[in-house]
Amino acid sequence: MTQHARELVEALSDQEALLERMLQVLDEERRCILGRELERLEQQVLQKKELFLALEEEGLRCAKLVQAMALELELPEAQSLTPVLEKVAEPEKGTILSWQRRVLELGSQLEKRLALNADLLQGALQTVTGTLDFFARIFNNSNTYGYGGNLVGSGGAQPRIICREA
Predict the structure, then answer these.
(1) DSSP code of 128?
(2) 3-142 architecture in CATH?
(3) Which GO terms describe its biological process (predicted)?
(4) Once rounded to an integer, what is the mean pLDDT over residues 14-23?
(5) Which of 33, 59, 151, 152 has the fewest CB atoms within 10 Å, counting from its CB?
């Protein structure tokens, strides 16, 4: 196995470890959302940001290694792994492909969990917004309809959540 191929396998392995850690963080984030644990949620968000930065660095490292392999194999125009793998020997090719498949599989799981957590957060925010709108309508009700169907001011009436009739 060439030096660049070994380094690429190592980079893909590192990327796999980061993706698996990110999936764990997203699972914990989901538990925090469902349990309404805002302090822990904030910690998970910070961890998620750090992991995304590390994943970005690993992605750049992989891209540089693919370019180095392309130059080594006299394919300077190759911008992705697919044309490079066509010229790589079989044992190396199989190893790199299996790591690539694993990273792509984890990436797909990551996208699904990110979408799920985003939907959970959006639903929670919609509930809070709806509740705030409800109370705003109760406490800020300044207009109402009169007997003639015309919009009239409510006068000096104080808004109340509970109305007690005597």
Answers:
(1) H
(2) Up-down Bundle (1.20)
(3) bacterial-type flagellum assembly
(4) 96
(5) 151
